[in-house]
Structures are given as C-alpha cells and as structure tokens.
Amino acid sequence: MGSTDYVIRVSATPSEVDSRAWDALLATQSHPTPFMRHAYLAAMAESGSATAATGWSAHFITLHRDEALCAACVVYLKDHSYGEYVFDWAWASAYQQHGLEYYPKGVIAVPFTPVPGTRLLAVDAQARAALLQAVQAWCESVNVSSAHMLFAADADMQSAKDAAWMARHTVQFHWHNTTPGYADFDQFLQSMNQEKRKKIKQERRKVAGAGVTFRHSQGADISAADWDFFYRCYARTYREHGNPPYLTPDFFRRMAATMPEHWLLFVAERGGKSIASSLIAVGARSTGATGLFDTEDRVAYGRYWGAVEHVDCLHFEACYYQPLQWCIANGYRRFEGGAQGEHKMARALLPVKTSSAHWLQHPAFADAVQRFLEREGEGIQNYLEHLEQRTPLKKPV
C-alpha cells in the first residue's frame, strides 16, 4: 500500500488541520509527548516563535481516507540549522565548498525541543510508510537538498530504515524511577554510590544555607505573575549566552491558556524575593486507542531555567533535585534532562541513545554522509559503553 492510496494534503498553517483528529491520532502512538500536540505546534507558529520569518516554514502533511485522518506530520523548510540539537553544520559547509546549496532543507521535528517521541503519526505501519513516502516525494518536488527526522521514535526509525534513510544517533541523559518506586528523595540517594551521594548533599546544603527556598505550582495554579517572572529568567539566560531567546512571551501565554496541565513551575525565593525559576513539562504515554494515559509511565521533561541572582549550585537544585523530588512524590517514572550534558550523570541521569533519520537528494553526498555516520556511530557506541562504566549508582552486591 503506497501513498497513492490516500488523499494527501499539504497545509501551511496548523489551523488548516483538524486539531481533534490530530490529537486523537497522537494519543494512539507508542511514544507520544505533549510537544506533538496540535496546540503546542500551533503556539510555535502563532506566537511568532517558529515561522518563515525565523527560518521555520511549516508544512503539515496529512494522509486521509474517506476524510478520516490516517497519518500526519509537520515538515519545516529551513534556511539554517539553529534550534535542532542534531548538528549538521559540517554537511552544510561541505555542500557550500562544492558550490551546492544545502539550504533550504526539510526537517521533521518539534522546533527548539530535543525530546524523543513520535514524529510520524499514523494508524498503522502501512500508513506510516506511506506518510514518509509522501514526505520524500514532496521534498523532491520542492527541490530541497535533504530531509531530517529528529529525535524520532522506534516506529519512525523503522519506517525510515525501510525507506533507505540513514540513521544517526546521539546521547541524552534520563533519570528512571525504579519499580516499585522510591519512597522519597533520601531513598533515591541511597541508590547512589557514596561519592555522588555526598556531592548531592553538599550541593543542596549550599543552596539551603544561602537562604533559598522553593515553591512549585502546576497547571492553572501557575499565576500570570509567575509566568512573567519565568520568562524574565528564561530570556536573561539566553542573552547571557549571547543569543536572543527562541521563544516569545506569547508562546508561553498560549501554553498557559491551551495546555496548562502539561506545565510545572519551580520558583526559588530568598528574602521574600523570587530569584530563579525552572519550567518542567509533564506527560504520560498513551494506553492505546482509548487515548487514556497510563499512570505507570508518567514522564517529566526538563525544559527551561533562569536566574536573576547567582547562588552557588542553584542550577542543580532548580533543574534536577527539586524536579526529581517532585517526580518521586508524584509517582513519575522518568525525567528527561534534555540535550547534551554529561554532568547530569552525577545527578543519576543515565545515558540513553536517541535517534534521527536523514535523506539526502544528492547521491554522492548521501554516500559520503553514510560513511561518516558509520564512523560516528561506532564512536557513539564506544562513548555509551564508556559512560555506562561510570555509573553513579551503587554496583550490585
């Protein structure tokens, strides 16, 4: 069954796609995340965060049969490689050196959101394969150099492999709550080796000794003032690193209005004054066609943080220890720490392999990239094995 068995539509705005049908399809996937919800992608576009003006021109590709949505994804045409977290700058440079244009390229991803999850929404494997076939055909029709599916789920990667796309792997760091789950943060600390346990206790004492306390709020309980303070922290952190913030204030206003249940905010205070904040996303995997959520697979995602005052070790407390303590208290099974960051291992976030898939239209460059990815893949595997030997957890007796 190929893409010709479906009615294929390409829409330039999320408003042209039925939000209920999109979200219902997402709920049946093996690895859904809040970041693939229609409201999240719509907020990216409608807030001015991910638009053609910022180098993210969205195209929603949908497959229908008898008006029923069978498969869907969003492909961004991009004229740069910012905000992706899977780096292909060297590929773009090689194209330029040979007098070829690398941009625009196609990217199947969630803008500025390096969270693994389903990218190709589909009712079954056949529809998923047809969707990827339609994506590739569309990319060829608009003459892009390449297409890249980032932080994809296993089912997506299998479809990509079947379509002869090239696989690439990177490393992230995730925390896992053990079955039946830690009773409290102290029990979690007891799972770690003495050196790392001692280090965490020292870091927490530094923050508490500086007079810093934390409060948290979730969903509709996050006040407008707290959202405003969070954005002040978020924007300041980006600017301190020499970059303007990717996301606009309106994006977070839309999140507060359309997806409040997916957000958890920690605010650090000292002397009655807010001095830092960290924003966490929360979700869960679906149980299947019912669209209900499995409480045994609740997931929290570290997303953004910032501070207006410096306190030693405050970043670790706001971004790791407070969220992990909350996850344990609320029965969350996983905390994903985001892209990069080997330092996360010392906080018991362990290495996991993430995957992306790539298609290049130019045969000679595709061959060269394939050889590069084979070498890089060996290095990633060696790196993972090296990291696994440095586990912060106690060794089994």
TrEMBL record:
The lineage of its organism: Bacteria, Pseudomonadati, Pseudomonadota, Betaproteobacteria, Burkholderiales. SUPFAM superfamilies: Acyl-CoA N-acyltransferases (Nat) (SSF55729). It comes from the Bacteria. This is GNAT family N-acetyltransferase.
